[in-house]
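Annotated sample (chain length 334).
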Amino acid sequence: MSSARRPSGRGRGPAPPASSVADEAPRPRWQQALVGSRGVARLEPGHAVLQGFVQPEESAAIMRWLAGIHPLREWRRAGSAGRMLLRPVYWLGAWQFACLDYYRPPRATRDACLRAEAHPPPLARVVERIEQEIQNRLPREHVPRGWRLNTALINFYGSRFADGRWIDVARVGDHRDFEPGPVASISFGEKALLQFVEPGRRGERSAVVHEVWLEDRALQIIAGPLWKDRLLHRVQRVARSATADLPPAIEDFRTRRVNFTLRWVPERDIQRLDELSEQARAAVRGYVEELARHSTHFRGELTRLPVVSPGVSPLAAGEARAGRPVRRGPGPAG
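Output written by the structure step:
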């Protein structure tokens, strides 16, 4: 909708264009199925937002659990040089490390998902309700056989202290989720503006199809060939508040929003640490060792590995084999 007005930001989709539909450039066929005669986005099956879905007592229990975890700062390889992700992350169920380029079925399914901790009880109870909501709400063809929300990416939105100042990093660029079946998310803290955009060419400005503010304790569901597979989505910004400071405590980082993105990875694609290839295992071992300082699960994963020769860093060895310069001093999560 290149000539449509920007959305109003109140969850009702883009405002009707000032000109008539006849004055607009022809829309792609997929977009014609999305918009009505007045150019207003319809929430067709495959997308839903339920504000306040997580109950206050459920939210409080999840916040107490969050206070005890230790998120990672990961590096992502970009060409021959590395860069750190903007924000700390934590995964449950299956950890998708950035240096392994995530899980992208059907092609990239091996050496992509490391067995991680299961959902803690406070989250598991909410996830069970979400799964039931999705089964009741979505068409059957949108939910694959065996589907369940067995993994979670926990994203922390806020400000990072770097170069002597606080930098706002509360955003995520255009992307889609590759895991099969519906994806759900629950948000805590300050509200965030989420936008669905047309897929476009690199460097071109993406046209907004629909946007919605996700409030504290909101549930969002994304599924189907249009909302999940065709459109991209992004977090454009997160509201600011002088009082927002969510757990856990993260060095040089202030969190004002936490989001759990819940997805399904088939069990056959989740590997134990000793089942990864030698190169993948070496690339992530430093991270696993950092996680193991606070996690019995990851300490157990390390016991499955053979002993490494003294004085040799498995992470450095993996980077050297991958043709990446070896960093001196502490590992990427240190």
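Annotation: The chain has two domains: 48-269, 273-321.
Annotation: The longest helix spans residues 121-137.
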